[in-house]
Specification:
Length: 397
């Protein structure tokens, strides 16, 4: 018997783990309605053709070997211009990675020792807790306030900072709730980071997917001295999650960041480089405007509105309207308090695949599930009707 490393014991990824059950259900011949994975390309979305052409031309030109560890110059320059557009100054390093996920992994690995912690939003993207487990950190979740549009609970954050805390993570817009942080929230996070000598990880991968005239504020733009790593990428805004192209932008007081930046770059050099030809899509995407988002946001707005209306019409389910991204995180009243059981039953009975709230974290005593509203209106309508019918039968057992 070969024993796996202890560090893998608590590594879970609910978004993908739920697919095992979905695949079993699909084998029965039931029609499946997938509302679990945020991949626009599975539905009626596609990237701007110019980005695909840039990658294709790079391949034909044989840019198929290793790139510089931090990325090709034209890509890094384009990211710098994008950061400037967002108001981020005092930048000391920019690096291109295999998706924003690798940037997050590298930056956590370069910062946090075993037994230390980072403040992680709850609900939040499960990658962060998976990396924490791998690094043998202890989890230190802070809660988002559902009654306040899923804004980070600043008082909860204050109460959880300790002498082993190294960073605060904010996902903005948030996955899974779709919330967009207010300027007041961001300023309070900055104050806490400066007071306690913490790095802020600002995960802004959905920063261009906003509803109802909402504006995204880059956290690092609000203070030139606070140490921030801003994460971005092509996956969501430009509909190419399979390109696996992301990046990190390090800004703030250089005197406190120099050693940390070198640690990040040691890891970047050790893993050689991100995907090379796909990097040529970065300047095409960031310097050519966002005209493709007009149609994208028209579709997503209709689907967001349908999601909120139909889910809130189900007695016992309540859904805060998302302000960004393409997720909603409705609460559900359950007698048994087990959203894993509820979701498993929903999948088996209806073929509607959602992800239980426990996969993202939630306030104890509450239950939720995440839906992805990328499918077309016809599929969403059928899925939400099935959810309503199943829920009413489930609670009346």
């Amino acid at each position: 018997m070969i024993k796996p490393a202890i560090r893998t014991e608590n590594v879970t990824y609910a978004v993908r783990d739920i697919v095992v059950l979905a695949n079993e259900t699909a084998k029965t011949g039931k029609e499946m309605l997938y509302l679990n994975i945020g991949d626009p390309n599975l539905f009626d979305f596609a990237p701007p053709k110019a980005m695909v052409e840039s990658t294709y031309k790079a391949m034909l030109s044989n840019f198929n070997g290793y790139s510089p560890s931090s990325g090709i110059k034209s890509a890094v320059d384009a990211i710098a211009k994008e950061a400037d557009r967002k108001g981020i100054t005092n930048i000391h390093d920019i690096f291109v990675t295999t998706g924003a996920s690798e940037a997050i992994d590298v930056c956590l690995t370069a910062l946090v020792n075993e037994g230390e912690n980072v403040l992680t939003p709850t609900p939040g993207y499960p990658l962060y807790t998976a990396i924490q487990s791998k690094l043998q950190m202890y989890e230190n979740p802070y809660y988002l306030d559902e009654s306040n549009g899923w804004q980070p609970d600043i008082e909860d954050i204050k109460s959880k900072i300790n002498d082993k805390t190294r960073a605060i993570i904010i996902i903005n817009p948030n996955n899974p709730t779709g919330s967009n942080a207010s300027i007041d929230t961001l300023l309070q996070l900055i104050d806490l980071a400066k007071k306690h000598n913490l790095v802020i990880f600002a995960d802004e991968i959905y920063d261009k997917l906003l509803f109802d005239g909402e504006k995204h504020i880059a956290l690092a733009s609000l203070d030139k001295d606070v140490p921030v790593v801003t994460f971005g990428g092509l996956s969501k805004n430009y509909m190419v999650p399979g390109f696996r192209i992301g990046w990190g932008v390090v800004s703030g007081d250089k005197s406190v960041l120099t050693d940390y930046i070198e640690a990040i770059n040691k890891l970047l050099r050790a893993r050689l480089s991100a995907n090379h030809p796909e990097q040529y899509a970065i300047p095409t995407a960031l310097l050519s405007g966002d005209g493709h988002l007009v149609e994208v946001m028209e579709k997503l707005t209709r689907r967001r509105d349908m999601t909120v209306e139909m889910l809130n019409a189900i007695d016992g389910i309540s859904c805060v309207a998302p302000k960004g991204a393409f997720y909603a995180f409705p609460s559900v009243k359950l007698k048994d308090g087990d959203d894993n059981k509820f979701v498993a039953g929903l999948i088996k009975a209806t073929g509607v695949v959602v992800v239980p709230g426990t996969g993202f974290g939630q306030v104890p005593g509450t239950n939720h599930f995440r839906v992805v509203f990328l499918p077309n209106e016809e599929k969403l309508e059928k899925a939400y009707k099935n959810i309503g019918d199943f829920y009413r039968a489930y609670i009346n057992k």
